[in-house]
Specification:
Helix content: 25-40%
CATH topology of the largest domain: TIM Barrel
Largest sheet: 7 strands, parallel
Number of domains: 4
CATH superfamily of the largest domain: Metal-dependent hydrolases
Strand order of the largest sheet: 12-13-14-15-16-17-18
């Protein structure tokens, strides 16, 4: 709620630095940092929390008590989702957005695209042909054109997880899961699909209709409710019998191509697979067809309305049981894209595939030493130690990131703080690291001899996003070749759905990573998931070393590791290629050796 108030108030006030915007943003951070249950506090108690004022405390209480906030509802009416989506386009700030609306009547991406085609944007104050061209390019690269509205995974995932957690608490519900492209870790999604296992669908449907996320009911029946959230995202919730949960979840997870290939695999083995389960193929007369396969499985059989004999249920309760009955290894959801995963499952399976349990450390990790960090060094180290990490690279920003970075003297002081904490956490090796900023030509922070003192470094792009493919490739190769660089962070610098990443010759970059033995990061932030899964798969094919990191700036962000692992699975990454699955001694030897070899 507070995040949405930040977004809409920025548009309304035409400035991200207005008093109201900063107040809502401070309140969001205060709620995030609060360790107790916010919902149990009254307005006076809320207002005592550092960062929360009386007005915001009142809105929080209003939201907790009613599920709505009058101020937010008014802003939503003034700025509908299609209009807000324009604010995510690079080059379209709140003042420009207001001008587009008042001068040209632009309310959505299609109208903006039409105005660009007619060269009307360049006529607005403070704009021009170059600005118009940049906006056009950003629209294309963000994939905002076309009829189907896509939602960034960072917006969809928290909502889906919250809904699933809530549905699991309903009496009689035995399981619930989000499905579709979101479960497959697609970067953008069309809608959210959720399956629920329960004997009493009516109770579940009533609970769904009463959720605070519901803005408009699209359809509501006995076993399915579809609704729109206030930002226009559709959510479909289906209730199935507990014994059908695995089959339904498999079916609605997809992809369509994977489902087709899986059904063909079943048919070739005299079985039939649908959303109700896996069945023996019915014996039928030639005119009967496969009607039995499409009938719901009410108990242990599905019966055709034709002359076909009953087809017996083989498996349906879990996805694992269905794959096993088909003679296949279980295929993790992110891999179900019909890219030879069924052949692999029938052959040697996925025993070497990276799993969350394989991760032994985090090697891109911030504290409040970085200007954008929000938890102290002690808090961040304690959280990592409690997560069971064997090693941790604390990589606060280098000096060339003006607002968020630290100069050499500050970094040396930081090293002393980390060294002191090491005594408190002997089971976790703490590495004094740095996230180095890659400048326009591939240069890095600090002098060479100072940079060489860091125990571990990650070098990342944070600026100069508009250079040519050749220049971007050259700057990355220059950074990779530097002997003090251990890994490349969030390769393209993208924010999914909000900022396109840099464009490069990926083959040259991957070749450089192999040649100089530098690891490629899979950043677990849902806004980034960078390197992307398709790049990860190409990297795996070349033998590029990988590292999965959270890029945490707050103690609440360690859950990003799971998203990073799922992205790595989508890219078919084996555990042995991921350097932070290695035991501590092996990892530290590699850092020392690969630096010495350069």
């Amino acid at each position: 709620m507070l995040s949405e108030l930040v977004t809409l108030t920025t548009i309304d006030e035409q400035s991200p630095q207005s008093f109201k915007v900063r107040a809502y943003d401070n309140a969001r951070l205060a709620v995030e940092a609060h360790t107790g249950d916010i919902t149990t506090l009254d307005e006076k108690e809320l207002a005592k929390i550092n960062g929360l004022g009386k007005a915001t405390a009142s809105k929080i209480r209003e939201f907790v008590d009613t599920g709505r906030v009058a101020k937010l509802d008014a802003l939503r009416e003034t700025y509908p989702p299609a209009f807000v989506a324009l604010s995510r386009i690079p080059g379209v700030g709140p003042k420009t957005l207001s001008l587009m609306r008042s001068e040209l009547g632009i309310e959505n991406v299609d109208q903006l695209r039409a105005a660009i085609d007619q060269q009307k944007i360049r006529e607005l104050p403070r704009m021009g042909a170059k600005s118009e061209e940049k906006i056009a390019k950003a629209i294309d690269r963000l994939g905002l054109t076309g009829k189907d509205r896509r939602t960034p995974i960072a917006d969809a995932m928290p909502l889906a997880e919250r809904l699933v957690d809530a549905l699991r608490t309903i009496d009689g519900v035995t399981n619930a899961a989000f499905c579709g492209s979101l479960r497959r870790m697609s970067e953008t999604i069309g809608d959210i699909d959720i399956t629920v296992a329960a004997r009493d669908p009516a109770t579940v449907m009533e609970a769904v209709r009463n959720r605070p996320e519901v803005d408009d009911i699209v359809v509501s029946g006995d076993t399915k409710t579809s609704f729109l959230t206030p930002v226009g995202l559709q959510v479909d919730v289906r209730v199935v019998a507990p014994e059908q949960f695995g089959a339904a979840t498999l079916y609605f997870t997809g992809s369509k191509q994977h489902n087709i290939a899986l059904r063909q695999w079943a048919i070739s083995r005299d079985m039939l697979l649908n959303e109700y389960g896996l069945f023996t193929k019915a014996a039928a007369d030639p005119s009967a067809g496969d009607a039995a396969a499409s009938a719901p499985a009410t108990n242990s059989t599905a019966t055709s309305e034709t002359h076909a004999s009953p087809s017996h249920l083989i498996a349906s309760e879990t996805e694992e049981s269905i794959y096993q009955a088909l003679g296949l290894a279980f295929i993790p959801a992110p891999m179900r894209e019909s890219t030879c995963e069924i052949d692999r499952a029938a052959d040697d399976g996925f025993a070497d595939l990276i799993q969350r349990s394989d991760i032994r450390g985090d090697l891109h990790y911030h504290t409040d030493r970085s200007g954008d960090g929000r938890s102290t060094v002690a808090e961040m180290v304690q959280t990592a130690a409690e997560a069971g990490f064997e090693y941790l690279a604390i990589t606060d920003h280098g000096e060339d990131l003006p607002i968020n970075g630290s100069n050499a003297e500050e970094m040396l002081e930081h090293r002393e703080v980390i060294a002191e904490l090491q005594h408190t956490y002997p089971a976790t090796t703490l590495l004094w690291g740095c996230e180095l900023n890659i400048d326009a030509t591939g240069g890095l922070d600090y002098a060479d001899d100072f940079r060489a003192q860091f125990d571990y470094t990650v070098a990342s792009v944070h600026s100069h996003f508009d250079q040519s493919v050749a220049k971007q490739t050259e700057r990355l190769v220059a950074a990779i070749s530097d002997p003090t660089v251990d890994s490349i962070g969030h390769l393209t610098g993208r924010y999914i759905g909000r900022r396109p990443g840099i464009e490069m010759d990926i083959d040259i970059v991957l070749e450089a990573l192999v040649h100089f033995d530098v690891a490629l990061e899979i950043n677990g932030s849902l806004n980034r998931l960078d390197a992307a899964s398709d790049v990860v798969r190409r990297a795996v094919e070349r033998g590029v070393k990988l590292v999965i990191n959270t890029d945490s700036h707050h103690t609440s962000e360690l859950g990003r590791m799971e998203y990073g692992v799922r992205t790595a699975q989508r890219g078919w990454a084996p555990r042995d290629l991921v350097i932070n699955t290695w035991d501590r001694a092996t990892f530290l030897r590699w850092v020392s050796a690969h630096r010495a070899d350069r």
